[in-house]
Specification:
CATH class of the largest domain: Alpha Beta
Shape: rod-shaped
Number of strands: 10
Number of domains: 2
Radius of gyration: 36 Å
Helix content: 55-70%
Strand content: 15-25%
């Protein structure tokens, strides 16, 4: 994954997850369960007809779900595309299962049971798949992210979320996050429960849990670069602030020296002070180090600072003695 790519960081994470191996049968079923809760729909008609379908905006996710259903349940989904007039005419992928394949799916997810006469009876509207194993919990979180998750680009901020259309999905996600020791928060957005994580470390942890190792490294690189840029900006601001302070000090010193010249004349000063006084008046924007290099012989920064402080003290005493007007009237 590269930060220069035009795709979103969230899409890059999903691309990595889509390419992961299918895993063990229990993990495949956990991922199917999550995608069923986030993207699945059931349709019923008379005569025992029933159909399950999945609507997915990401073609890669649709391809992975197709492979999961085929490999784990040996069902053959039909794939077609629909164009949505809303949201800029976005195209979605739809996977559809016939009645027999739908029965297989619902039985596997403990959503239904078939009686002796071959009639299917729906027991619940959401999957009930045990996830006592850590690998299954990881697979469910991965599937839920592929179906209903988004991630803000780390350059802009740290925010990872799932939109849980069903409150039971929200409850499942919360339980799994607690088992993974991942702190989360939730709120309602237009009536939909949103489960989210904040902070770079928490998001790195959830990416690692889902198996997106390359995305973790990419995010860490982005975080480090952000820190370096922030440090450079702070340093530049500090240098600018120091430069402004230096310029202000130089002009105050030059003004004080002019005050001495008007009140008593620079010739009354010792030679060392007279030389630095002349240089400062002629070069009010110059640094102490640069002033010292111009003296004969050259003087270090601390020496120049000491002499200018003596000049400022002389100016202060003149003000106290004569007042701000300079010489006595």
């Amino acid at each position: 994954m590269r930060t220069s790519d035009t795709r979103s960081f969230s899409a890059g994470v999903k691309e990595e997850l889509i390419r992961l191996p299918m895993g063990k049968p229990c993990c495949m079923l956990s991922e199917i369960s999550a995608l069923t809760q986030t993207s699945g729909h059931l349709a019923f008609r008379g005569g025992g007809w029933i159909s399950a379908s999945y609507r997915l905006d990401n073609a890669g996710t649709a391809r992975r779900l197709f492979q999961l259903l085929k490999k784990r349940l040996n069902v053959a989904p039909k794939l077609h595309f629909v164009q949505t007039r809303q949201l800029g005419g976005r195209r979605s992928c739809v996977l559809s299962l016939g009645t027999e394949d739908t029965r297989t799916l619902l039985n596997a997810l403990h959503m239904a049971e078939t009686d002796e006469d071959g009639q299917i009876h729906l027991k619940r509207t959401v999957p009930r798949h045990p996830m006592t194993r850590q690998c299954c919990r990881r697979a469910f979180l991965r599937g839920a992210f592929l179906g209903a998750g988004t991630l803000t680009h780390p350059e802009k901020g740290y925010h990872f979320e799932w939109k849980a259309e069903d409150e039971r999905l929200a409850e499942t996600l919360e339980k799994l996050l607690e088992k993974c020791d991942l702190p989360y928060k939730s709120y309602l957005r237009k009536g939909t429960r949103v489960i989210y994580l904040k902070g770079a470390q928490q998001i790195s942890d959830i990416l690692a849990v889902m198996g997106a190792g390359s995305s973790v490294l990419e995010m860490e690189n982005i975080r480090i670069n952000k820190q370096l840029r922030a440090a450079a900006t702070r340093a530049a601001n500090c240098d600018e602030h120091n430069s402004e302070k230096m310029l202000d000090a130089g002009h105050r010193q030059a003004e004080a020296i002019r005050h001495i010249s008007i009140a008593k004349g620079l010739f009354t000063l010792p030679p060392a002070l007279r030389e630095i006084a002349r240089l400062r008046v002629e070069n009010p924007d110059m640094s102490l180090q640069e002033l010292g290099a111009m003296m004969d012989p050259p003087v270090g920064k601390s020496g120049v600072n000491h002499r200018l402080r003596r000049l400022m003290e002389i100016s202060r005493r003149i003000e106290e003695e004569y007042g701000e007007g300079g010489k006595n009237g």
